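Researcher: Go.
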Amino acid sequence: MPATWRYIAFPMILPWRPEFWSLPLFFPDLTVGVLQEWPTGLPYRGRSLPPEAVEGGRDVRHYAPGELKQWQAYQEFSRDREELDDIVRALRGEPEPAAPEGVWQDERALSLAWQMEVMEADQEAHLAKVDRVGEWLGEVLAPEAWEETPDFQALPGEKEVLDPETARWRYLLWCREMGPQLLPQSAPLLLGRTALPIFAMLRQEAGGGQAPRMSFPLPGCRTEDDYVAAKEGAAAWRQDFHRLLGACLTAADQGADIEGPAQKLSRWLVEELPRQWPGAPSITWDLEIWGRDPKAGEGGETLLAWGGLGKGVIPG
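Model: Structure:
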């Protein structure tokens, strides 16, 4: 029997969305970071924000999206101090200190990264509320049946707006904080609005190619009542789901042919799962599998993603 895959939520701070009532039905053992405004009826227990996430927030708030390059800002801040320290050491005849390994050894760099993550999470929580208001207005102000609905076409080539440095630092912060859980056969589960474009950008920046990418429609919930109703029968089908999903992930991780395992999972989702689901699901969401990309270091691992969050154009 193949080893069980483990799933770690990305990003570090997850603002609540009603769609996430579906998560514990499929991933009850999901490892999470900081949960922002999540209801108590879910099995997940997040961690608290560290002190460096809330201290000195003014250090980064003057940066606009697209300009928040934490490491460059830190280097500018520390350059004068380092030059003065070098002069003092030379006058005292002291040897130069060994350079720290990696960019996370300095507490100030870590503090800036956490503050940036808090700001990103606050923005995502705000945009999730905007989504809900937009849905409500769409229902209230919907045109009458006899009115002709205008057909607006999306602008060609529109993509999510992301800063490459911000994307990289959010990934590095996640790796640093979730390091003990990032074991063999563990996969990130991307749940934020900007999570998919972050990993896509990391792979592109690293020169990665087009790794296998599959999408599977899953039933879901948007209310606690629907979650409780579906939870009663979830234990009966969840083992089969993880067995089939794990086979897909193993094939993708090893660079093997994913078509066979993917067809088995798709067939089970169409033929078996609806028989065990209580009534019609309130939502259908897409679970994506991205295969490992050996050419891309950062963000190149095999992963799962919640497809569809973000509604196209995302400021981030």
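Model: Residues 149-159, 312-316 have pLDDT under 50 and may be disordered.
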